[in-house]
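TA notes, week 10

Several of you asked for a full example with nothing omitted. So below is the full record: structure tokens for the whole chain, then the designed sequence directly under it. When grading your own attempts, check the secondary structure regions first.
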């Protein structure tokens, strides 16, 4: 069969992801703080964008009279919906506070010495230490130990060897290298490194630089003068029995009564298994809600969080240049492109806010019982339910609910939290799996610690509450909640 090349024409409809569409999708899935960063970045790159003045200012009134409806407002088909959205979302800006030069205030007053005490003054203001100089940063474990070791070291050689030990501690405060490895690194002997390690283990916090958990606990017991106690004996030889919670075996091995062993275990529980934890540099992650839901009378009001969100408008100066034909050639082409981009960005932000509001409203029409009664009354919900309700695609609902948080009378939740798979009942409507998880947590929280419930027993209790669930599902939910098995939860005494 002969092969030949031919040219043919074919007409077909395809969906093209234009840069504007990509930008709209990107804005839709950004969280509140990420959106602020994106807007600030766009303002740096697009001269057509500028901050809008407060709505009650004279500049805003003058700008309204010169506004161009093609760019300053949403399309006619969306204008009424936009007005309703603005009214219900409470989008009016707060009155701008009078600006105050806090930097100069802090620099000139807070950091300068008091002249009334005749301790001198700074002739040159630039020499005055800044406010940041008086703000203490959190000390890391390495810095704290190095500071102590500078006083405890006997020579320059000790400083070098001690730095090698401190540099090989992990975040929990345990030594992550052997004496032989550190000896090779510092060109010293293992005996010399062992002496330095023993002296570093005397530093604060107690238990630091241990090579394993028993050594860490023993170092702390020694600091408490309990190195000859029953607790120390347990740490040396019988921690495995404590882990298994085998009280009879412990009593036989230690030749002690149950009360004595229980007291020793309580002393061990009071110790810190990770001495470096207090100096962890991990910062807390703070979440800014995108939506607030508050109860007014018998109704719930949805309010979008627009605090700190820049209000944009098109630059009047550059629009005037285009209108008066002051820009020509490449300048006019550049400004025209930036004008279209700026106008699309403003409309995309309006559309994003409307979409978040509508999706949140649709979710809580279904989850109204959650707002009134709590997690146990969550209803099963999938993305398709909201997509069909609003006429959106499921992927749009997924983007809207990703990294978006809502503050409700029941607490702060991610919007995705309210989409949950169903758990069937023997009779009646299905339950959301999150409700069942909460029920399992309550059952385990109310159990006898010395006789914890097995997964099968939890299944039987849930069956008695008209919840049809399998044992493997209970085990999966229990692990998701961070709860151990019955043997791991059992108290020894």
């Amino acid at each position: 069969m002969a092969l030949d090349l031919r040219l043919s024409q074919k007409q077909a409809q395809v969906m093209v992801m234009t840069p504007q569409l990509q930008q709209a999708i990107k804005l839709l899935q950004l969280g509140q703080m990420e959106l602020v960063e994106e807007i600030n970045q766009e303002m740096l790159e697009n001269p057509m964008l500028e901050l809008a003045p407060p709505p009650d200012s004279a500049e805003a009134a003058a700008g309204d009279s010169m506004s161009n409806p093609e760019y300053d407002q949403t399309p006619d088909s969306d204008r009424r919906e936009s007005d309703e959205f603005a009214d219900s979302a409470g989008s009016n800006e707060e009155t701008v506070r009078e600006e105050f030069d806090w930097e100069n205030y802090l620099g000139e007053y807070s950091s300068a010495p008091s002249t009334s005490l005749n301790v001198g003054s700074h002739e040159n203001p630039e020499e005055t230490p800044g406010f940041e100089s008086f703000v203490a940063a959190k000390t890391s474990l390495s810095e704290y130990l190095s500071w102590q070791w500078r006083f405890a070291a006997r020579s320059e050689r000790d400083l070098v060897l001690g730095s090698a030990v401190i540099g090989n501690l992990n975040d929990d405060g345990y030594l992550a290298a052997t004496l032989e490895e550190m000896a090779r690194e510092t060109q010293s002997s293992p005996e010399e490194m062992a002496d330095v390690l023993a002296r570093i283990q005397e530093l604060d916090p107690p238990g630091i630089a241990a090579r394993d958990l028993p050594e860490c606990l023993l170092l702390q017991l020694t600091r408490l003068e309990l190195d000859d106690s029953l607790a120390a004996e347990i740490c040396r030889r019988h921690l495995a029995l404590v882990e298994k919670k085998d009280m009879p075996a412990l009593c036989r091995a230690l030749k002690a009564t149950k009360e004595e062993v229980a007291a020793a275990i309580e002393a061990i529980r009071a110790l810190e298994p990770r001495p470096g934890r207090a100096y962890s540099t991990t910062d807390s992650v703070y979440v800014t809600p995108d939506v607030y839901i508050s109860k007014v009378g018998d109704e719930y009001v949805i309010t979008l969080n627009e605090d700190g969100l820049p209000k944009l408008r098109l630059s009047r100066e550059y629009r005037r240049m285009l209108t008066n034909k002051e820009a020509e050639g490449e300048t006019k082409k550049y400004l025209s492109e930036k004008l279209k981009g700026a106008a699309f960005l403003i409309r995309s932000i309006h559309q994003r806010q409307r979409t978040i509001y509508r999706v949140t409203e649709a979710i809580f029409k279904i989850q109204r019982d959650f707002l009134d009664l709590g997690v146990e009354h969550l209803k099963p919900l999938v993305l398709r339910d909201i997509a069909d309700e609003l006429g959106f695609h499921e992927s749009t609902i997924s983007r809207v609910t990703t990294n978006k948080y809502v503050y409700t009378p029941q607490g702060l939740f991610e919007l995705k939290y309210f989409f949950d798979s169903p758990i069937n009942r023997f009779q009646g409507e299905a339950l959301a799996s999150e409700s069942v998880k909460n029920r399992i947590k309550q059952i385990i929280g109310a159990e006898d610690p010395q006789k914890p419930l097995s997964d099968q027993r939890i299944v039987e209790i849930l069956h008695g509450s008209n919840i049809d669930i399998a044992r493997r599902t209970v085990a999966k939910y229990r692990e998701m909640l961070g709860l151990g098995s019955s043997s791991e939860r059992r108290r020894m005494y």
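The radius of gyration is 33 Å. Use that as a sanity check on your answer.
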